[in-house]
Amino acid sequence: MCSLSINPNFKRISNLLIFLALCVFSTLTSAAAQELNPNIIQYHTQEWKGVTNRNGTGLYHDLMKEIFTDQGIKVETKYYPFKRALLNVEKGNADISGGTEKDSPNYIHSRYPAWVVRSTAMFDKKYLPDWKGLETIREHIDKTVSPPVTGEEYGIPLHEVRTRYAAIRMVVRDKMRYYIDDYTILKDLFHKNGGLAFEEGKETSDLANVDWSRFTIQELPKREWRMVFPNTERGRMVREIFDAGFKRLYESGKLRELYAKWDLQDVMVQEIHPETNSTRQNPKK
Length: 285
What we know:
- Residues 1-31 form the signal peptide.
- Pfam families: SBP_bac_3.
- Keywords: Signal.
- This protein is an alpha/beta fold.
- Among the domains are: 81-115 and 226-267, D-Maltodextrin-Binding Protein, domain 2 (3-Layer(aba) Sandwich); 119-219, Periplasmic binding protein-like II (D-Maltodextrin-Binding Protein, domain 2).
- The protein has nine helices and eleven strands.
- The strands form three sheets. A five-stranded mixed beta sheet has the order 8-7-9-6-10. Strands 3, 4, 5 and 11 form a four-stranded antiparallel beta sheet that branches. It has a two-stranded parallel ribbon with strand order 1-2.
- Helix 2 packs across helix 8.
- The chain is globular.
């Protein structure tokens, strides 16, 4: 009788190939399941005081809890610089970020704004005689500072810095002339020295002795900051859940309670119309 002898090395190679094949299959299956199942979503954001505190409190965290967590969807929050968080959404590595007006072909905006921006410019009153609104900002781009993506939202290449704290200090020290941000945030700083929406770890105590009466706050065109999602089937699914939950909170009155909890009633959308377009219209410049 003829006996067949199998090389031990061949067995080891065969077992290795089978193991690798199973690993690849498992990875593909897991990815496909995640693509079809939004029960765990990735929320990427920068930390902002009163909005996205690292301890899980803040307006946006409350919105995530009410909209997603209470519907049985787990929210995993990761903190990044804001531009990186938006880039993660563009690449499909995050399900939601924001809010912003910044456009990208790789993500889509929520139907309703999470923050209605009363956009303003803060500057020393000595420059007030030359003030002509957004025209002045366009004329003095090199002397205007703002938080991330503000310039992109206005279509102006402003000098953007990573933190509000750094931007404010530049204007206070007369290194820059104009600072662009939301009125509610500046009002909180002027009247309370509270640092609403300032990045955690960037204290405003050294600004406590600033003579804020030196400065004026002037109106600019309003903007609406909306949450953003990947421009994919999954992204559209997550956006649909967010929009429906946001509308439900608005109709029940719970939305106003959440904004009031953080003293942010002024930035809440005041009316929601069923026919509102799901994509943001460009604001008037």
